[in-house]
Amino acid sequence: MDLGLKDKTVIVTAASKGLGKATALEFAAEGAKVIISSRHASELEKAKADIISKTNNSNVQAVVCDMTKAEDIKKLVQQTIDLHGTVDVLINNTGGPPAGRFDQFSDQDWYVAFELNLLSFIRTIREVLPFMRKQQFGRIVNFASSAVKQTLDDLILSNTLRAGIVGLAKSLSQELGKDNILINTLGPGRIATERVAQLDEGRARKLNISPEEVRMRMEQSIPLGRYGEPAEFARVAVFLGSCANTYVTGQTFVVDGGMVKAY
User: How many domains would you assign to the chain?
Assistant: First the structure.
């Protein structure tokens, strides 16, 4: 299948590691012009070099961007326009909020999580839409969590705000269809990333068992019997963000090896 991504301009946020980096790598392998962003310049440059090395695609640029800062997001999009003249694909991704229960979090905790995990997506979409509308083409994929289908214990901040991402994408799909801009939500299950390893370590401390034991128990609840690899998640994201996707919009998917039992 030809994904039609050669020379398309793609922004992938929070792409210095994990799912963001894996997704940027897959887009680069398809010949896209990829702009990766992260708060950490040194990690970002390492990711850029690694992606170029593995894909032999030198058209990968790195832009430092803190997704909680509106001005950084504006600069990210403007630098992309300065480089390539437009944005064809936006992959919205951020780190997850802290784990914990309701009584642990103050108003400030909620504000910080809101700005990082929902308002940041709103801001990036707002910045790219004029260019997508002008060319009557755009693909937006918002990374969320399997919590969009089934809530996760001790992750109330994530459970609440990921639901907002679903509502945002579903609403925008109705507004943007006439402009051939497709927007979808993609949630990872237990994918082997640093974020999941940290969650496993936190659960291990709570249960007074080893992280390895936590992982083994989790894998027993997954029909495929293992954690996913970032590349397995990334390939789904790339399809949704490609020209091969011509009729899927406003939908919510999880890549979880069958773990979530909810419809």
Answer: 2
Model-wide pTM > 0.90: yes
Nearest to 86 by CA among 123, 140, 134: 134
Confirm whether 263 is domain-assigned.
Answer: no
Residue 217's domain spans which residues? Answer: 192-227
The arrangement of strands across the sheet holding 9-12 comes to 60-64, 33-38, 9-12, 89-92, 138-143, 181-188, 252-255
Shared domain for 105 and 14, answered yes or no, is yes
Dist CA 203 CA 162 (whole Å): 21
Pure H helices in 100-242: 107-114, 120-135, 156-176, 194-207, 211-220, 230-240
For the chain, give percent helix, strand, coil, nearest 5. Answer: 50, 15, 35
- Per-position pLDDT tens, the chain of length 263: 999 999 999 999 999 999 999 999 999 999 999 999 999 999 999 999 999 999 999 999 999 999 999 999 999 999 999 999 999 999 999 999 999 999 999 999 999 999 999 999 999 999 999 999 999 999 999 999 999 999 999 999 999 999 999 999 999 999 999 999 999 999 999 999 988 998 899 889 989 999 999 999 999 999 999 999 999 999 999 999 999 999 999 999 999 999 999 98
